[in-house]
Amino acid sequence: MLPVAEMEELPNGLRIVYANDAHAESVSFGLFVASGSRHEAPADAGASHFIEHMLFKGTKRRSALAITQAVEGRGGNFNAWTSEEGTCFYAYLPADSIAVTVDVLCDMYLNAALPAAEFARERRVILEEIKMYDDEPDSVASENLSRLLFPNNALGLPIAGGAETLQKMTPAYLRRYMRRGYVPAATVAVVAGRFDRATARRLIVSRLGRLPKAPARTFMPVDEATPVIPEMRVARQIQQTQLALGYRTFGVSDPRRHAAVVFDTLMGRTMSSRLFQSVREKHGLSYDIRSQLQFFTETGGWCVTAGLDASRAEKALKVIDGELDRICQRKPTASELGRTKEYILGNFRLGFEQPRTRLFYFGLGVLTHGRIVPPEEAVAQIESVSAEDVLSVARDILNPANRAVSWVVPK
User: 0.70 cut: is pTM over it?
Assistant: First the structure.
């Protein structure tokens, strides 16, 4: 039996998830906020990611060093990330440190100081981060693919924003942005590992329970009538051609999503997948080829990425397309389907042993679906996927009208 969790919603709209594990030696605490890059207007591009960085730069009570020492001084670790639909910052420490964990992260959420000196310095850091990704051909290919799949929508723009918008931002600007986005209705607090539930509740409610009610941010949905842009090709001073081939798909609540996970794993998630075995092992056309499935609220994307010899790139694309045609023509065998589902479920169970994994599973689940998805339910949904389901979802995903190809080629 996989560990379960329970959720409580406070009168102000804040949701708290308790995922207790009496056998764990650690406790993880995280705050998930429905404020990501797709909530931003064009003039705000990069604000969510900038805020994520600045949360670690001190509060009214703690310096940046004091925040780090409070966590690392107890043997713990902490980090954060920003995605298209949310921001998360979290910490994991020994189980007897829950009071410190909750206090530090709630302090960052409530009282980020955004000091001017740190602000200017961190903006330079983010600009260097943007340059770093711009120097990575595979990152460029993937970012351009998003532009092709989601034109005229924030989903098609880089999460970190760009120099033009970042240069205009000020600490006061980010404070105003946080006041509109960091509200209880948009926030999920998750505690996972070994802890006393009453203590955890008291610690969280005393800090976040008195916040006033306010509506969560909204975003512009993708207009499915807007066609994808078929192709983009850019040249760089590189030796290898980078390919990102993608399809715009459906959203996270679509009933086909479980079959899509099986399809994605079968096609390109592992070394035994069809694309890896065909493109690399049989034809020797790429060192690394993989697929990725990404769900958003009302839309999504499935892509294949590979680094290729420039002289053999077109041949590689033909081999890839051959595999895509094959999965649309014939359902997988019972043994292939069984191996794929066993990999998904085994990987899921192994990861679920860690409180930090459960933190992300339940936090993202509530942020996305508005409820706790019991792990046994997730397992049952994968187990129920049939070969016919995989064939059907492959035909739905691999719709030529929703296809785009992004190339980064040597000059």
Answer: yes
- Decide: 23 and 354 in contact? Cβ < 8 Å: no
Cα 371 to the center of its chain, rounded Å:
18
- The mean pLDDT value of the chain amounts to 96
List pLDDT tens digits, range 225-262: 999 999 999 999 999 999 999 999 999 999 999 999 99
Residue 52 annotated as catalytic:
yes
CA proximity to 77, closest of 28, 144, 13:
28
Per-residue pLDDT reduced to its tens digit, 400-409: 999 999 999 9
Kindly tell me if the per-residue pLDDT of 3 is higher than 80: no
Amino acid making up residue 136: E
What angle, 0 to 180 degrees and rounded to 10, lies between the N-to-C axes of helices 171-181 and 116-134? 80
Identify the active-site residue in 52, 84, 143, 323.
52
Rounded to an integer, the average pLDDT of 77-89 is: 96
Confidence label for 304 from pLDDT (cuts 50, 70 and 90): very high
Q: Tokens 């979290």 map to which residue?
A: 90
C-alpha distances out from residue 55 to 4, 5, 52, 80, 178, Å:
30, 28, 6, 9, 11
- CA 133 to chain CA centroid, nearest Å: 17
Eight-class DSSP state of 19: E
Contacts of 34 (CB under 8 A, 6+ apart): 85, 86, 181, 186, 187, 216, 217, 367
What 8-state DSSP symbol labels residue 279?
Answer: I
Nearest to 270, CA basis, from 280, 285, 260, 283: 280
d(C-alpha 352, C-alpha 226), whole Å:
39
Of 342, 294, 357, the closest CA to residue 5 belongs to 357
SS3 143: helix
DSSP lists the bridge partners of residue 31 as 89, 189
In sequence order, what DSSP letters do the residues of 336-348 get, joined into one string? HHHHHHHHHHHHH
pLDDT for 4 equals 82
| In 135-242, alpha helices (H) | 137-149, 163-168, 171-181, 197-208
Phi and psi torsions of 170, nearest 5°: -130, 165
Q: Which of 364, 359, 346 is nearest to 26 (CA)?
A: 359
Per-residue pLDDT band for 136 (boundaries 50, 70, 90) equals very high
